[in-house]
Every structure is written in C-alpha cells, then in structure tokens.
Amino acid sequence: MRFDVITTFPQMFKGPMDESILKRAKNTGKIQIYIHDLRDWTNDKHRITDDYPYGGGPGMVMKVEPVAKAVEQLKRETTGSKVALMTPQGNPFNHTVALELMNLSGMIIICGRYEGVDERIRQNYCDMEISIGDFVLTGGEIPAMAIIDALTRLKPGVLGSDKSTSEESHSCGLLEYPQYTRPADYDGLTVPDVLLSGNHAEITAWRRSQSIERTAIRRPDLLKKSNLSNEELDRIINKYDKP
Ligand SMILES: C[S@@+](CC[C@H](N)C(=O)[O-])C[C@H]1O[C@@H](n2cnc3c(N)ncnc32)[C@H](O)[C@@H]1O
After folding, report:
1. Atom 6 in ligand 1: residue holding the nearest Cα
2. Residues 99 and 128 in one domain
3. Is residue 161 part of a domain?
4. Which of 64, 144, 183, 189 is the most buried (most CB within 10 A)?
5. Is the Cα torsion angle 202, 203, 205, 206 positive or negative in sign?
6. Residue whose CA lies nearest to ligand 1 atom number 1
C-alpha cells in the first residue's frame, strides 16, 4: 500500500516512520510512504501556503491552490489512491475503518494546520474526511501517522505473527486480556497461576473471560458489536447488568 502525505511540516515524519515495524514494512515493500512538502506546489517567492480567512476571525486558513495542485498531481501519479483529509470534523477513525482502508491501493493524506483547509478542498478534492478523536490537535501530521501505523500493522506479514492482530483489542469487538511477562513474582506482585500452568485450554478460557470482563467494565458499548456467544452475553449481562 502506498501513502502520499501532503504536509507543511515534512520533518515531523522523520523518526516515527523510520523505526521498528514501519521501517521493516517499508524495507520489505509492504508499504511505501512518500512525504510531500506542500510548499513545492506554491509559486510565490515566500512559498506561502496559508492566508487570512474571508469574513475575518482568528487564525489562518490553508490556501486552496497548492493543496489542489498537490492532490491533482499525486492522483495522476498513483492509480486508485483515495484522498483523505485529516480533520476533527471527519468520520471517527476506528478498527473497522482501518480494515476498510487497508484494502485500498493507496491513500493521499492531506494534513491541515492553523484553522484548517479552505472548504473548497473538502468539497471537491477529497474522498473522505477522517478524525482520530473528539479533540483538536495543532495539525494533521499526528493523525496521518496514527492512520499509517494502524493500517500498516494490519497488513498480513507485517507483524511477527498474524495472531498478534486477531487477538488484539478491538479486533473482535473486545478489549484484549491482561498481559504479563517475566519475572513471575516482582516484589510480591505475582502473575495469575493459570498463566504458569502450561494448560493451554485453561489459559485460552481465562483470557477469553478476562477479555469479556474487561470490556464489560471499561467499554460496555463495545459488547453489543462483539462476537460473544449468547451464553457469554447472558453471563456478563447478569454480572454487570449494563451492556
Ligand atoms: C487546529 S486544527 C483546525 C481545527 C478547525 N478549526 C476546527 O475547528 O474544526 C488544524 C488541523 O489539525 C488537524 N486535526 C486536528 N485535530 C484533528 C483530529 N482530531 N483528527 C484529525 N485531524 C485533526 C486537521 O488537519 C486540522 O485541519
């Protein structure tokens, strides 16, 4: 999958996109990431990408021309890539959205700044608008990185074991069970006996029940969309009376 990111802060991507799993995914050709400086599509001496808002008010607005030109050029250079605007007003990003986007051949991601991007970009140049949560960040770069990271780790073969993603929080509507590693006893803080038992059936059952309990306590809203059996659902409803 190919990611083309349009940003006025290309340096921000150095580091997060060059370490660990993303680095390996790039090196093995599972993904390609191209970071584009929006200023490359300006024509003026000062390479200006923003201007005052019509109608007045605080802050600056990202100009339509450079963004439009960037999108047009990158669409010509990529086949099938979809254009996504990062905005706190967009569709909430979650695991289901990540699974859908993962099937795209590519994404052209527009990172806003200041008061956001000229509305004509949203209306005429974007296939989708994505928000990574109900809060406002200073720019779309961190949302872009979050989306690239989330999609990349879902690609088959990117993580050591594909089980890593299938058992993870949100993959089947449940939060993941608690995890422990050595030592078994740290200053009196011990690991549950079942995990040391070597009995795989019991471990699987314990993990499943922990996942369900955790979800019921922390995110009961998720239970409705989860893959619980009727029996599991009844048990948890009786216990917490609030899914
Ligand atoms: C300060 S924000 C602009 C917010 C805008 N004035 C509003 O009220 O909707 C600047 C840029 O950061 C990005 N951004 C901020 N919060 C975001 C979020 N929760 N999800 C996705 N992008 C976000 C967007 O690209 C946005 O254009």
Report:
1. 115
2. yes
3. no
4. 144
5. positive
6. 138
Regarding the beta carbon of 141 and ligand 1, being less than 6 Å apart is answered no
Does the beta carbon of 135 lie inside 6 Å of ligand 1? Answer: yes
Residues 111 and 175 in one domain: no
Residues 45 and 11 in one domain: yes
Average pLDDT, the chain: 95
Q: Is the CB of 146 under 6 A from ligand 1?
A: no
Query: What CATH number should be reported for the domain holding residue 34?
Result: 3.40.1280.10
182-225 pLDDT, tens digit per residue, is: 999 999 999 999 999 999 999 999 999 999 999 999 999 998 88
Q: CATH no. for residue 173?
A: 1.10.1270.20
The pTM of this model reads: 0.95
Task: Please return the burial class of 80, using the count of CB atoms within 10 Å of its CB with bins 0-12, 13-18 and 19+.
Answer: exposed
Domain of 227 in residue numbering reads as 167-240
Please work out whether the CB of residue 11 comes within 6 Å of at least one atom of ligand 1.
no
> Tell me: the pLDDT tens digits for 4-38?
999 999 999 999 999 999 999 999 999 999 999 99
Q: Which atom of ligand 1 is nearest to the CA of 130?
A: 21
